[in-house]
């Protein structure tokens, strides 16, 4: 797919300096630009590359004035970084602009779906499923019975949505993710075995949620596991049964949240964090990577360590942790030199 400088400038509301008919069909870094590629210059550290780049078109800030002749056509915009991001989003929308039902695929009884549905090959749609408008479901995906999916959602290849799940509008779920699998509920018996506790709740994803690849969100034992509006989950995260995650919270990869824990709004949780069950995490909490949370956390705290404690205290203590062998040696020396009393 090719775009001219004039077309790109129209999308970005920018000004062309150079050849308005210059065409591009790919994207590149400015230092790796080749003929036919589009790049951008936002960081002053890379300004030297604009004089040597072979990129056909370069997006720059409106304040940029070249100091020598350029080979590349410029598109001047208010903010080059934001404009390039906008262009990437536009490019992604065009690339994902598919519709139609590919075969083989299975659509069960009483399924309803809106206009512009894309259903890839080898998909299965269960009974009584409701799908909104402009939904893209890529190949080898499974949608269980009685699932509801809102408008403008994208499910990439190999997504599994178990029965009774509710997905809001503008949600993106990446490959290999499972929504609505059984919660981890087993009752110990006197003979040392475990009986499975039936998990009969569901999962609710509200609007504008994005879930990374190979993440699992378990259905509730009773009621719902709830992921609130605007939540962003990275790859390989485990969300257990009856967890609730507040609006606009972001969680990085390999974090695990145990059952029935409630996480507040606008939290930022780093990678490989472990959060115990039946806790309440407040709003605007920050948790550094590889921390362990085993207690309720009030609003606004920043935590690090395992078990975690206040971030500032942890940093001060870390100085002593590193010096602990030296401190012990000094104490031993003091004990040896202590005069007999």
TrEMBL record:
InterPro entries, sorted: Hexapep, LpxD, Trimer_LpxA-like_sf, UDP_GlcNAc_AcTrfase_non-rep
The EC number(s) this enzyme carries: 2.3.1.191
Pathway: Bacterial outer membrane biogenesis; LPS lipid A biosynthesis
Keyword Protein transport: no
Domain of life where this protein originates: Bacteria
Record domain UDP-3-O-[3-hydroxymyristoyl] glucosamine N-acyltransferase non-repeat region: where: 22-89
UniProt-annotated catalytic positions: 241 (proton acceptor)
Gene3D superfamilies membership: Hexapeptide repeat proteins (2.160.10.10), MurE/MurF, N-terminal domain (3.40.1390.10)
Claim: Lipid biosynthesis is one of the keywords in the record: yes
First-tier enzyme category under EC: transferase
Alphabetical UniProt keywords: Acyltransferase, Lipid A biosynthesis, Lipid biosynthesis, Lipid metabolism, Repeat, Transferase
One protein family per Pfam: LpxD
Reactions the enzyme catalyzes: a UDP-3-O-[(3R)-3-hydroxyacyl]-alpha-D-glucosamine + a (3R)-hydroxyacyl-[ACP] = a UDP-2-N,3-O-bis[(3R)-3-hydroxyacyl]-alpha-D-glucosamine + holo-[ACP] + H(+)
Record's subunit section: Homotrimer.
Role this protein plays: Catalyzes the N-acylation of UDP-3-O-acylglucosamine using 3-hydroxyacyl-ACP as the acyl donor. Is involved in the biosynthesis of lipid A, a phosphorylated glycolipid that anchors the lipopolysaccharide to the outer membrane of the cell.
Similarity field: Belongs to the transferase hexapeptide repeat family. LpxD subfamily.
Protein name in the entry: UDP-3-O-acylglucosamine N-acyltransferase
Biological source species: Flavobacterium cheonhonense
